[in-house]
Amino acid sequence: MHVVMFSSGKGGVGKSTIAANVAYVLAARNKVLLVDFSAFDKTSSRMLAPGCQSRAGVYDLLMQFREAYGEAYEVETCEGLLKTLEVLPPGTLDERRVQWLEFSVLAKRVKNLMDMLLPYFSIVVLDYPGRTINLDPLAQALIMHVDHLIIVFDPNTAALDEGAKLQNFVKKRYDPPPVVSVVLNMYDGGSYAVEGFRSPQGFYVEVPVDGVVKALGKTPKLQIIHKGVSERWTKAIYTIAQNILAVKMRARHTTRLLI
Predict the structure, then answer these.
(1) Tens-place pLDDT, residues 146-156
(2) pTM to 2 decimals?
(3) Counting C-beta atoms within 10 Å of the first and last residue's C-beta, which end of the chain has fewer, N or C?
């Protein structure tokens, strides 16, 4: 079992598009669960399991108080575009309600949820929305269970600033920290100082700009199975998936304590 978290610290960088397409590729040879935390647009849920986004999901589970009664969590996932791919949508609740919970409460509920999910999937992909990590107790609780953090940038100064905050927080507050990799999305051929964000075991991949990908993302429909997408873009997605599997062979899941 291996937990991969796609995050950015900033919205609008194409993180959900990358997460959904990579999860689909990984599911070709692995049992994969994608957990969609992006309650605003539910992009990855809509791409991988059309019709699933209106179901109860991860935020509903985190607002339950089952542990107070000694009850187990009951999770109903949606079948994705492949039999080996399942999706847990954001759910029906306003995600801000979860953010108001204390960190200690969230940490316990996240642990209960992850302990239940992990035995059933080879890879769990977390699609997490762009938020400032210092002010986000849910992200802080989740990273305690993350093996591989993938920071997604676009060619934008604000994205670089938020990515730096995320990287620094993880490096200082977790022992051991997860492997950190970097994806530069919508790469336009310029020079951007993002490769240095990755950790020694992590990778760096540039995903080129593709008009078809952008157009399908507005629908949204999964781009990796569309014939109009460029070979360069498709190759970049497969490269990310292959590198995730390489990290999976080296980094095993352990519980990390926030310090």
Answers:
(1) 999 999 998 87
(2) 0.94
(3) C
